């Protein structure tokens, strides 16, 4: 089967041919139809987890995907041959991933039936970004009456975070360059601030001189989070996806600071499916590419030159 893999950490991802994996007891073999790209994919290729998990090489990249159950291993009853599934297919320890024509998943792992009426390319764009956004909104305890700033709102995680915070009843301020402001408002943002113009604190304070309640941040480094935290009222919450929050520094401001780590499960995917089925969450795919273009797309994403969600067609 064809797959995109690295021969060692730091190597350039390349198209390779490898044997199709066989499902063992408790596993499903999924014929992937689409794989969703995330920043984590190039970070893993670069060696982000090299001290955490011992991986065999070639190491197939990719977490998110959607496809059809092609075979089930002994003892699998939750999913059946022919079912359409989506989820997180992160198989680092076995060298497997979603950028491949076939991959394996534990039948009791973070894989769920696809939402009704959803197409594979859209489903593949959902898992990591939307589950992370869901975890952030839960962690910040966002509810009606709060004002929330989403930093990195135009990205994969951010677009879901804007929708979920708005659905929870919050007033949402989204960061966006001018050309994305309309999209953010359509997703539920009440206001936008333009990060390319600098001084986010000043832009937010201009309309909220008494501060805001929560910040969901996909972008800022530790210095940046401490600057933005000046916007928060005591009792507020600051959640980062990139481990930039110093909880002690936040506590000194009477703010709850959390670094979130997405932990996908089938139950959380079912929660997302219900939101998608109810048209309360949608994910926009910016571009679809064939498998052989994935290395170039990863390089562009690493260089900061890819905007919106990219999905690989398999
Ligand atoms: N901890 C976890 O479990 C977890 C889970 C998912 C993601 N993450 C991490 O979270 C980050 C975001 O992921 P993603 O999938 O949403 O990435 P993405 O789709 O690449 O989006 C990043 C967004 O940030 C915007 N941006 C860049 N600089 C900005 C700034 N200074 N101020 C405001 N917005 C800015 C970009 O918009 P412009 O191009 O218009 O600037 C882009 O839309 C990544 O580092 C990823 O690895 C962590």
UniProtKB/TrEMBL annotation:
<feature type="domain" description="Enoyl reductase (ER)">
    <location>
        <begin position="10"/>
        <end position="312"/>
    </location>
</feature>
<dbReference type="InterPro" id="IPR020843">
    <property type="entry name" value="ER"/>
</dbReference>
<keyword id="KW-0560">Oxidoreductase</keyword>
<dbReference type="InterPro" id="IPR036291">
    <property type="entry name" value="NAD(P)-bd_dom_sf"/>
</dbReference>
<dbReference type="Pfam" id="PF08240">
    <property type="entry name" value="ADH_N"/>
</dbReference>
<dbReference type="GO" id="GO:0016491">
    <property type="term" value="F:oxidoreductase activity"/>
</dbReference>
<dbReference type="InterPro" id="IPR011032">
    <property type="entry name" value="GroES-like_sf"/>
</dbReference>
<dbReference type="Pfam" id="PF13602">
    <property type="entry name" value="ADH_zinc_N_2"/>
</dbReference>
<protein>
    <submittedName>
        <fullName>NADP-dependent oxidoreductase</fullName>
        <ecNumber>1.-.-.-</ecNumber>
    </submittedName>
</protein>
<dbReference type="InterPro" id="IPR013154">
    <property type="entry name" value="ADH-like_N"/>
</dbReference>
<dbReference type="InterPro" id="IPR051603">
    <property type="entry name" value="Zinc-ADH_QOR/CCCR"/>
</dbReference>
<keyword id="KW-0521">NADP</keyword>
């Amino acid at each position: 089967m064809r797959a995109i893999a690295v021969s060692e950490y730091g190597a350039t991802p390349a198209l390779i041919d490898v044997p199709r994996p066989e499902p063992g007891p408790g596993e499903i073999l999924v014929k992937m139809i689409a794989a969703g790209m995330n920043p984590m994919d190039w970070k893993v290729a670069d060696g982000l987890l090299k001290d955490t998990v011992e991986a065999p090489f070639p190491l197939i990249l990719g977490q998110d995907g959607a496809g059809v159950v092609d075979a089930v291993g002994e003892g699998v009853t939750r999913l059946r041959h022919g079912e359409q599934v989506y989820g997180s297919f992160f198989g680092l320890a076995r060298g497997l991933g979603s950028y491949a024509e076939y991959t394996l998943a534990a039948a009791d792992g973070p894989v769920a039936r696809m939402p009704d009426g959803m197409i594979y390319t859209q489903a593949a764009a959902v898992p990591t970004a939307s589950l992370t956004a869901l975890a952030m909104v839960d962690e910040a305890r966002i509810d009606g009456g709060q004002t929330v700033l989403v930093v990195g709102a135009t990205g994969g995680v951010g677009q879901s975070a804007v929708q979920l915070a708005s659905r929870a009843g919050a007033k949402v301020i989204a960061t966006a360059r001018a050309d994305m402001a309309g999209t953010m408002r359509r997703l539920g943002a009440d206001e936008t601030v333009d990060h390319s113009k600098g001084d986010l604190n000043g832009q937010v304070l201009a309309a909220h001189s008494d501060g805001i309640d929560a910040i969901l941040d996909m972008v800022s480094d530790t210095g940046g989070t401490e600057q933005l935290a000046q916007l928060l009222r005591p009792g507020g919450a600051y959640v980062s996806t990139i481990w930039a929050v110093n909880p002690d520094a936040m506590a000194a401001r009477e703010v709850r600071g959390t670094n979130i780590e997405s932990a996908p499960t089938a139950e959380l995917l079912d929660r997302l499916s219900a939101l998608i089925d109810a048209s309360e969450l949608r994910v926009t795919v910016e571009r679809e590419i064939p498998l052989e273009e994935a290395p170039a797309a990863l390089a562009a994403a690493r260089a900061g030159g890819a905007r919106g969600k990219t999905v690989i067609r398999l």
